[in-house]
TrEMBL record:
Small GTPase required for proper nuclear import of RNA polymerase II and III (RNAPII and RNAPIII). May act at an RNAP assembly step prior to nuclear import. SUPFAM superfamilies: P-loop containing nucleoside triphosphate hydrolases (SSF52540). This is GPN-loop GTPase 3. The chain crosses the membrane at residues 172-194, 320-342. The keyword Secreted does not apply.
Length: 441
């Protein structure tokens, strides 16, 4: 399965810095993550993009050839025609830089050729900072649709709003509306991030308490805004009421200098796209249940299953319990004996090769873990607790550790699978060889 994340947000929100931090963190987890640049004005990268729109068209070329300003040049890069065509130039001027032919969208074969080679990998797509490119021009929605339908990518987006917005309440809610506009325009799952959280910490490195009212936008903030223009106060209240009623915009804090913060964001993006979980083959499509039934009834096989959940899931408690529920879903769908394994245990050993002690709480899932999850969205906390209670009550999911680099670990797993299927228990007892030879004499 292929995955792509569109990194969006206004200019100066820290999109490129976030892309770099995300790639760096993913590489420490041995994950293949690649950068795609869709900003024709970009000039420097910490990681070389595997695809760069500047190889197709650059902002400098457009500005020089057509004598456009930066914004008109950006629009042209995404929607313009061929350089040097007088008729196209006239169309651009008459239609406010809107040409019939779209430069990038008319070169989707180039995009397909460049991106079609990646399998089971993760693309981080750095988008420009001009918000009209998301809301007024159909480029990114059409690009997301192309990636999903033509190239079979799972696509999601993140929207960055910098923490400095909270210094002006009206400006903050305007930013929230821009996030909603982007979400509606793209039509895909989107995670909102409040970036540059390191800039609003106190002297002891703690985030100010009132920031929580902005992460999950509090409508009462607008009543406290003494600088708000009185003429727009009722409009502001109505807009804030809309935000509260729809309840679709909340922010996850992002501090790119904090590895735990970056890891939490990556986990949320993974969950949003069901990274590594092609679970629909087990739960939504009857293929595997029918295959198991065919092997049992038609071909007289004893059939069982193993379900692997990688050890990296324990870095995010909510993500881990989501994985446990996926395992339960698979078990119920298949309707056969199933052994759950926690794989890649070699990746969570300490310097002496020992598995960390707290891992035991995940092998036999401890409901208390969810209460310790400080990164959990408060809106989902009660739901998480109810789901964890279900897991505890049913008591049918526990994990056997698997380290494929350890022969004893692999042998233990094989023994459990053998026992699950009663392997060899229906064979005729074999007579010792020496006794068999004595009977022949």
């Amino acid at each position: 399965m292929r995955y792509a994340v569109l990194v969006t947000g206004p200019a100066g929100a820290g999109k490129s810095t976030f892309c770099n931090a995300l790639i760096t963190h993913a590489q420490t987890m041995n994950r293949q993550v690649h950068l795609v640049n869709l900003d024709p004005a970009a000039d420097k990268f910490e990681y070389k993009p595997v695809l760069d729109i500047r190889d197709l068209i650059s902002l400098e070329d457009v500005m020089e050839e057509l004598e456009f300003g930066p914004n008109g040049g950006l629009v042209y890069c995404f929607e313009g025609g061929e350089l040097g065509e007088g008729e196209q130039m006239a169309q651009l001027l008459v239609r406010g830089f809107r040409a019939d032919s779209r430069y990038l969208l008319n070169n989707l074969d180039w995009l397909e050729e460049e991106l079609g080679q990646y399998e089971d990998e993760y693309l981080i797509i750095d988008c420009p900072g001009q918000i009209e490119l998301y809301t007024n021009i159909p480029l990114l929605p059409q690009l997301a649709n192309f990636l999903q339908r033509r190239l079979n990518y799972r696509v999601s987006a993140v929207y960055l709003l910098e923490s400095q917005f909270i210094q002006d309440k009206s400006k903050f809610f305007a930013g929230v509306l821009s996030a909603m506009s982007c979400m509606l325009s793209l039509g895909i799952s989107m995670l909102c991030l409040m970036s540059k959280m390191d800039l609003i910490k106190d002297d002891k490195g703690r985030v100010k308490r009132e920031v929580g009212r902005y992460l999950d936008p509090d409508p009462g903030l607008i009543d406290e805004d003494t600088h708000s223009n009185e003429r727009f106060h009722n409009l502001n209240k109505a807009l804030v009421g809309l935000i509260e009623d729809q309840n679709i915009v909340s922010f996850l804090p992002l501090d790119v200098t904090d590895e735990d913060s970056v890891n939490t964001v990556l986990s949320h993006v993974d969950n949003m796209m069901q990274y590594g979980e092609a679970i629909e083959l087990y739960t939504h499509i009857p293929l595997l249940p029918q295959l198991a039934n065919f092997l049992q009834r038609r071909l007289n096989y004893r059939v069982s299953a193993v379900y692997l959940l990688e050890s990296q899931f324990i870095q995010d408690k909510s993500k881990f319990f989501a994985g446990v529920l996926s395992a339960m879903s698979c078990m119920l769908s298949l309707g056969i004996s199933m052994l759950c394994l926690m794989s890649k245990m070699d990746l969570i050993k300490d310097d002496k090769g020992r598995v960390k002690r707290e891992v035991g709480r995940y092998l036999d899932p401890d409901p208390g873990l969810i209460d310790e999850d400080t990164h959990s969205n408060e809106r989902f906390h009660n739901l998480n607790k109810a789901l964890v209670g279900l897991i505890e009550d049913q008591n049918i999911v526990s994990f056997l550790p698997l380290d494929v680099t350890d022969e004893d670990s692999v042998n233990t797993v094989l023994s459990h699978v053998d026992n699950m299927m009663q392997y060899g228990e229906d064979e005729e007892p074999k007579m010792p060889k020496d006794l068999e030879e004595g009977m022949d004499e």
